[in-house]
Specification:
Shape: globular
Radius of gyration: 15 Å
Mean pLDDT: 91
Structural class: alpha/beta
Largest sheet: 4 strands, parallel
Order of helices and strands: EHEHHHEHHE
């Protein structure tokens, strides 16, 4: 099982659907479950929270709702190539309801829950090899909770700059 997180920062790529279908084919025959990023949709909630003081719990719930919208967007973009959702049945238990936890950490939680062997984060940035997840969080490349979400993970974690990925790459 592979958990694939599609960063919301990628939604403006004109050929996103073509790239994602090619990437999914490159993962075959492994089963894949997908986690969408919130991107600009979640940023709207951040702005509303800042203006109206919604509070972290309410803002977190609304941000989670944006992931379903993003997932619907990806489903329409990918059609039958869309993998099953990893959001379904996701158990966050006592995880924090704050902006420290975004879809990066949700994808990590899904990887634990589904006993995935790989977690792939499709991003708009390069995360240099051997960078600790704490440093990546400090630099804003993953969310602040992510280092805790993957501590001791039994699965391989990969970050791919999907803006630079092409179908010819291994």
């Amino acid at each position: 099982m592979i958990i694939l997180k599609v960063g919301g920062s990628l939604y403006d790529l004109p050929d996103l659907g073509l790239r994602l279908r090619a990437f999914l084919r490159s993962l075959s025959p492994d089963p894949v479950r997908i986690i969408p990023g919130g991107g600009d949709l979640a940023d709207v909630i951040r702005t509303l929270d800042r203006i109206h003081g919604l509070g972290e719990a309410v803002a977190h719930e609304l941000a989670m709702d944006t992931l379903r919208i993003a997932e619907a967007f990806l489903r329409r973009l990918l059609g039958p190539a869309m993998p099953p959702s990893a959001l379904d049945g996701l158990d966050l238990g006592s995880w924090p309801q704050s902006w420290d936890l975004t879809s990066d950490s949700l994808a990590a939680r899904a990887a634990w829950q589904h006993r995935a062997r790989r977690l792939i984060l499709l991003k708009s940035v390069d995360i240099p090899p051997h960078t600790s997840w704490q440093e990546a969080a400090d630099r804003g490349w993953v969310d602040r909770f992510f280092p805790r979400a993957v501590a001791g993970a039994p699965f391989r974690i990969e970050a791919v700059n999907f803006r630079r990925w092409n179908a010819e790459e291994p």
